[in-house]
Amino acid sequence: MQIIDFEKIESVERYKLMAGNIIPRPVAWIVTENEGIINIAPFSYFTGVSSVPPLLMVSIGREKKGINEPKDTFKNIKETKKASVCLVPIELTEKMDKTGEVLPHNISEAEKFGIELQRIDENFPPIVKGCKRAFLTKLYGTFENEEMATIPFFLRINKMYIEGEFEPVARVGKGYARLCEMENG
């Protein structure tokens, strides 16, 4: 038996323990738009939190690794108050993984990685073409505290896009997994 005191270990160790044991976690591929630049970024600290009102929560780091500037998704949602949250299908896993790369704010992941977009509603950022589920959301609020390295963003679902059959990708530890249908038995 082992009891790990989270107050006595480094944050990177806490992250590894949480990410490796709170599984599987769905992957949100968040599309934001600001000053004509489309940003696409994957997040696995993501979940539904309420149906009344309909809210999602995604935890977003304050700053880009190695660069003293806010993450694009963080900045864009704060400024525009909108995001399209796409659920990643198996066939787009490789492209999704590439969008985790840190890029300057004026470089679009869509352009750099050849990701096609689809505008389904003029009032929200586009979705990634090929994603069969997406939520069009507006910022509901955040919970910010100085000691937090990542900030929970609560996004209110205004509309949901659904197309055909869907097999989502989930994050399990450092890797990805398929989520299959479970049968009652």
Distance between the termini: 33 Å
Contiguous uncertain segments of 5+ residues: none
Please give the CATH class: Mainly Beta
* Widest sheet, order of strands: 3-2-6-9-10-5-4
Reported for the largest beta sheet, the result is: 7 strands, antiparallel
What fraction of the residues are assigned to beta strands by DSSP?
35-45%
Round the Cα radius of gyration to an integer and report it.
Answer: 17 Å
CATH-level-2 architecture: Roll
SS summary, helix count: 4
CATH homologous superfamily classification: Electron Transport, Fmn-binding Protein, Chain A
**What's the CATH topology name?**
Pnp Oxidase, Chain A
Q: Quick one: overall form?
A: globular
Order of helices and strands: HEEEEEHEHHEEEEEE
Q: What is the arithmetic mean of pLDDT?
A: 87
What is the number of strand segments? 12
When the domains are counted, the total is: 1
Describe, in plain words, how this protein is organized in 3D.
With 185 residues, this protein is α+β, with helices and mostly antiparallel strands. The chain has one domain: Roll (Pnp Oxidase, Chain A). Helices cover 17% and strands 38% of the residues. It is built from 4 helices and 12 strands. It has helices at 11-21, 72-80, 93-98, 109-113; strands spanning 25-26, 28-34, 37-43, 46-51, 54-61, 82-87, 117-118, 127-128, 133-142, 150-162, 169-172, 175-178. It has a 7-stranded antiparallel beta sheet, covered by helices on one side. Strands 1-11-12 form a 3-stranded antiparallel beta sheet. The chain has a two-stranded antiparallel ribbon with strand order 7-8. The model has no long low-confidence stretch (mean pLDDT 87).
